[in-house]
Amino acid sequence: MKLILNFGLPLLFGLLFQQFYNMVDTIIVGKFLGVDALAAVGSTGSINFMILGFCIGICNGFAIPVAQAFGAKDTDNMKKYITNCVWASIFFAAVMTVAVGILTRNILIWMKTPDSILDQAFIYIFIIFMGIPATFLYNMVSGILRSLGDSVTPVVCLIASSLLNIVLDILLVRPMGVAGAAVATVVAQAISGVGCLIYMCKKLGYLHFTKQDWAFSMRHCLTLCGMGVPMGLQYSITAIGSVILQAAVNSMGESVIAAVSAGTKISMFLCCPFDAMGSTMATYGGQNVGAKKMDRVDAGLKACIKLGIAYAILAFVFILLFGKNLALLFLDAEETEIIKLVYYFLLGNSGAYILLALVNIVRFMIQGLGYSAFAVIAGICEMVARTIAGFILVPKFGYVFVALGSPLAWIFADIFLIPAYIYVVKRLRRKFGQETPAMLKRCQKSLA
């Protein structure tokens, strides 16, 4: 647990700052530009998650072969994986930027974005998507650094860029509207990525990369894509359900959109520890399976789940006591009905955070062990649950299933992930010729 905390806490601070400057965007837009502008930015949340989640997932997947080679002390393959990460990231960034730029407005229309906020929503998310290369740069470099055991440097770069983003928000939102918030986010992300890249080039100088190391390798690229693409698809498939749920929300009017936007931003901030635990487990699993230390895999999972459950209980109590006060960060006090909607949304989500803890910890561990396809199936489970909520439950029962849509998705994912983890560990133990100790059998049984 001490090792997990030492590695995970810097990741947590980085995620908190990332969400902090995303939240500042929303706060400044809501306070400076009003409810319609807040609704416009909020209406793009699910498509933002779908596209940028795919990019982030690919980069996180690319880092797994690097972590496995590092754990196995295979320096030659580790260098080839690092250099081919660069070539693969350049390709995916170029393709994604062009394709998404062309399709963005049509997707917003399909999502039933109200005409009154459509133009503002398009301007905001189009600028964000033109910054996809910056997203790839930061996440590729930070993923490689984490794979090599450095979770601190990406955080330092992110903190600096977060502070810059806040300053740019204050300077640009009033004169430029929602476009100013988007520009601030893209510039901050780019600076963070460049800072990490400069450090990585200096840090990895001892590896003495040669011209041959930089040569494109189809074998290494296919391995990277075999990890990265399923991980990216897992994010995007999960987000498809969110897009469908967002379309149901968009049909309920600007007030509900604004409430869900504010509630989602608060919830994403509170969920940062779960994201940090997941990223920690991906690296932890990758390094330990590379070193063939399966006993440590089970022990690490159990320790991380304890942390996740403890935090989930604290987060729910916090929302129960202070949820309405948090809504005031985004809304004026006279918006009483919207504030109530935000509070109900937060209660619905935070009441199921234990389920989310299991989703993140178990799924990312499975990915780190090299079984990314199972993570995709878990994403499909989440998509199915959110689709049911968006198409059936929200139209029939109303806002209550807007608040419960994500918890329903976490239930569906956990039903698949827990037995999948037990299967993966047993398979790897047979592969390495290791028996499952009786104590760990009891641990796996308790998880099931």
TrEMBL record:
Keyword Secreted carried by entry: no
Transmembrane segments annotated in the record for this chain: 46-64, 85-109, 121-140, 152-172, 178-200, 221-244, 256-278, 299-322, 342-362, 369-393, 399-424
Molecular function GO terms recorded: antiporter activity; xenobiotic transmembrane transporter activity
Keywords on record: Antiport, Cell membrane, Ion transport, Membrane, Transmembrane, Transmembrane helix, Transport
InterPro entries: MATE_fam (IPR002528), MATE_MdtK (IPR050222), MdtK-like (IPR048279)
Compartments reported by the entry: Cell membrane
Keyword ATP-binding among record annotations: no
GO biological process: monoatomic ion transport
Membrane topology note: Multi-pass membrane protein
Primary site of residence: membrane
GO cellular component term, pick one: plasma membrane
Known role: Multidrug efflux pump.
PANTHER family named in the record: FMN_FAD EXPORTER YEEO-RELATED, MULTIDRUG RESISTANCE PROTEIN NORM-RELATED
Family, similarity comment: Belongs to the multi antimicrobial extrusion (MATE) (TC 2.A.66.1) family.
Protein's recorded name: Probable multidrug resistance protein NorM
Source organism of this protein record: Coprococcus hominis
